[in-house]
Amino acid sequence: MTDRREDAKHRQLDEVRVDPANTELTTQQGVRVGHDDDSLSAGARGPTLLEDFHTREKITHFDHERIPERVVHARGAGAYGYFEAYDDSLSRYTTAEFLTSGERIPVFVRFSTVAGSRGSADTVRDVRGFATKFYTRQGNYDLVGNNMPVFFIQDGIKFPDFVHAVKPEPHNEIPQAQSAHDTLWDFVGQQPETMHMMLWLMSDRAIPRSYRMMQGFGVHTFRLVNGEGKGTFVKFHWKPVAGSHSLVWDEAQKIAGKDPDFNRRDLWDSIEAGRYPEWELGVQLVDESAEHDFGYDLLDATKIIPEEDVPVLPVGRLVLDRNPENFFAETEQIAFHTANVVPGIDFTNDPLLQARNFSYLDTQLIRLGGPNFSQLPVNRPIARVATNQRDGYGQQDIHQGHTSYFRNTLGGGCPALADSGAFHNYTEAVSGKKIRERSESFQDHYSQATLFWNSMSDVEREHIVAAFRFELGKVEAHPVRETVVGHLNQVDHDLAVRVAAGVGVTEPPAGPPNHGRRSAALSQLNQPNLTPHGRKVAILAADGVDAVGVQRLVSALDAAEVDVEVLAPADGTLRPGSDGEPVKVDKQLNTMASVLYDAVVVPCGPDSARTLEQDGYAVHFVAEAYKHAKPVAAFGSGRDVLRRAGVQEQLAEGTETEFSQGVVTTGASAGDLPEEFGASLLAALADHRAWERRTDSVPA
Ligand code: HDD
């Protein structure tokens, strides 16, 4: 395990940490306060006095506690950790030391949704931000990416239009954190470059099970630059060690009510439990000589480079191992900026990236109140900072000397120009007319949307069709629905027909032929090394439960780093059915819901099972988990609860383990509970969901 305090960033943060332990209350001026319940008044029932500086200061500070939320990505959660490169293999391509040194580089990562306000729910259908600040010795490097590899638009000038369209509509500020409304789809209909991204947004990628279980992408083509000044195009990828997994839509909507902090809590809890989220950084490298070999433009952020065409080379790993101590100071005040680069990394002429390089610095000025936000503890580089920039709101440094200009002699010429290690802009030849025009090479808006659609499994396609039907079904302006179906017809005729049938749009005539190409890496169901680690299982129980069986199962799950919680109709402890110790209840059943777990188990114990069979909440819990294609398991009399919940699979009759379509059962119990039962449950958890299960007719 890392010594979490022992990195340069944390040593720096230690200097500003404020511990209230063993302190006495004071004013901001350090004057001790002996009374904090009543304001100063003229007589016990008289008016409050202006001279009450303590009350005024307290209220004034409170009045100013809020800062503007981020104009997009307002809702987020973050954590510290480290990045380490596996080796120096990238040193041929870049002088960025953090990518080649193998040293542990402190990082802060902030995950976010895009459209919702700060207090909105985590599990809405949306893109997720994946922004990483690397505190490197060469300065801060920010990789401000998303969990989808493409973007809605090609040129940053359209960003305000896109955001205005997706945000709540301006007349009534409805709907919150939803893309299912008229203005977004009107925009999409008018801007077909959105099509590829809309396929991603309607896919399961838009409802990740956990931040720990989503991929990240730098999106743009960036440039690595080596010591000779030679550039190589690069795309950055984060691959989660826990696999890339998603919720189902009904579940995501319910979680938004049952636990709006679902993804935030999951990140926090897993770090507190020492189950550190981890990703592998990969790069796709393209030699500059191959810039025009792809049939699409590398500068177009609505395009991917399929992994089958250019492999993703693993270069290092990211581990998040420490929660922030204060949400506002750290997660809210962190300021990312695409232009925060270090020597060895540079931009391309991607017009989306160019606009971002303006926007991020600009937005921090209003959000964080002035030009000194990079001095905020979470933003401070660990690299030494020496500028001639001075003053401004919230200046924290006491600059000494009387020169703050370059070139000077009176200050000994300092700060002096760097002898070595300076950032040198990549030298690129540029020519052409000054012109407002979208390049011809940016005009293909459909073929990669088709590639994405072709690459999906049947169940992923079903989810995409259902998502389009849901979203367009909420659009009141029918002509907008028709326009969008028209674009879908350019992507794939079958897709358009299936969507049209659900949203009252006439079936379009056959569209252009589908090119038939696929990229296996795009499907979430094509993943190697699936693992149950870090999943969460609910055990439903009541008095009379088979305590020995529960204990055996919990040990097996625990050994596989799976979290288990015992849920019962009431808090406290449960009387064991026969042998064993009383079972501690972790949560009261009605404070939780199946949607907050990855699987459910109903143990043996005739009394326990009878109680649960009569408890509509428990039966619904099982039925709902079953409907959402989650692993559902029971042993002994626990199988009665599964039957009551409408589980349709054949349940085990004898003491063997039956494992079919994510349903794991055995008639055995207590000390006889077979190891295979736990092992099958773990295998089902690793599979994430039993997509082959047909549950359309199951109510839940
Ligand atoms: Fe952006 C925030 C990711 C296009 C303007 N963006 C923001 C965040 C992420 C992204 C992850 C949250 C950072 C944090 O956690 O604080 N944005 C992207 C990606 C894009 C993208 C992957 C396309 C490839 N963004 C984009 C464009 C513009 C912006 C084209 C403007 C022209 N984005 C902003 C912003 C935000 C922001 C207004 C809001 C808060 C902030 O920057 O700090 O400047």
Automatic annotation (TrEMBL):
PROSITE patterns found in the cross-reference section: CATALASE_1, CATALASE_2, CATALASE_3
UniProt domain Catalase core: residue ranges: 26-414
Cofactor: heme
Single biological process term from Gene Ontology: hydrogen peroxide catabolic process
A GO cellular component annotation in the UniProt record: cytosol
EC number in record: 1.11.1.6
Residues that hold heme according to the record: 70, 110, 159, 356, 360, 367
Xref: CDD domains: GATase1_catalase
Family the UniProt entry places it in: Belongs to the catalase family. HPII subfamily.
Protein name: Catalase
